[in-house]
Amino acid sequence: MVRAVAHTEELERLEQRITGCRACPRLVEWREEVAADPPRRYRGQSYWARPVPGFGDPDARIVVVGLAPAAHGGNRTGRVFTGDRSGDWLFAAMHRAGLASQPRSEGPGDGLVLRDAWVTAVNRCAPPANRPTTTERDNCLPYLAEELRLLARSRTIVALGAYAWDGALRAVAALGVAIPRPRPPFGHGAESGLDGLALVGSYHVSQQNTFTGRLTEPMLDAVFARALELAEAE
Predict the structure, then answer these.
(1) At what angle do helices 134-150 and 162-174 cross, to 10 degrees?
(2) Which H/E stretch holds residue 119?
(3) What is the Cα–Cα distance from 75 to 34, expressed in whole angstroms?
(4) pLDDT band for position 147 (50/70/90)?
(5) Which of 46, 60, 61, 106 is nearest to 79 (CA)?
């Protein structure tokens, strides 16, 4: 797959396009409604309430893809996987893997720096019940495809959950990459080669997986260890 050289300026222009997007009326309404009436623990805080861009190291070899910002996480803080329990799990694991400077992500300005990693999502607005529609997914997919094009050193995509796995495959296909047939099925630890990129699946870091033990710290650590191994092998 031929991709452009990553440039910070191009990623910044993409961020501006993402944060100004109002393509999905239902999501615009929801993200703003949530911000206007937050739960008691966040009363008085100023919500971002806009689409949330990806962030990290422009020279990253590892790209982590999630579903969408959380209503009171990324939609509040303006940074994906930041300010919620899912992010606590994700960045703790990335810290143990040497990909994050600290184990917590509380908000912009907290000192978090990602090394060799970029974190993003298929959808950029918090959806009701964490369920974007097909149209909402398709409206957002070009942003993910553009990120992957600009992240020229990316070698491994870690997909958190089946939705992210499907979205990553769709975004890579939009860049002209042939998807293997039969289509690679999602699973924790599943892998697929995509013309210079390796796709690795993990259960999502949501509380319904971490609280129940479906996803454990050793399981997530193994995914990132494998992602690093694949990135170094390319």
Answers:
(1) 60
(2) strand 117-121
(3) 9
(4) very high
(5) 106
Question: What CA–CA distances, in Å, run from 155 to 10, 59, 89, 115, 158?
Answer: 19, 11, 23, 14, 10
- Residue-level pLDDT at 100: 98
Say whether pLDDT at 196 is over 50: yes
Q: What is the pLDDT of residues 98-133, one digit of tens each?
A: 999 999 999 989 999 999 999 999 999 999 999 999
SS3 21: coil
The pTM for the full model equals 0.95
pLDDT digits (tens, 9 = 90+) for 1-11: 444 454 789 99
The architecture (CATH level 2) of 8-233 comes to 3-Layer(aba) Sandwich (3.40)
What sections of the chain are H helices per DSSP? 8-19, 25-36, 74-77, 85-96, 134-150, 162-174, 207-210, 217-233
What residues form DSSP beta bridges with 63?
Answer: 118, 157
- Which letter does DSSP use for residue 184 in this model? P
- What CA–CA distances, in Å, run from 132 to 6, 33, 68, 76, 138? 29, 16, 8, 18, 10
Tell me how far apart the alpha carbons of residues 167 and 149 are, in angstroms, rounded to a whole number.
Answer: 15
Q: Tell me the β-bridge partners of 202.
A: 160
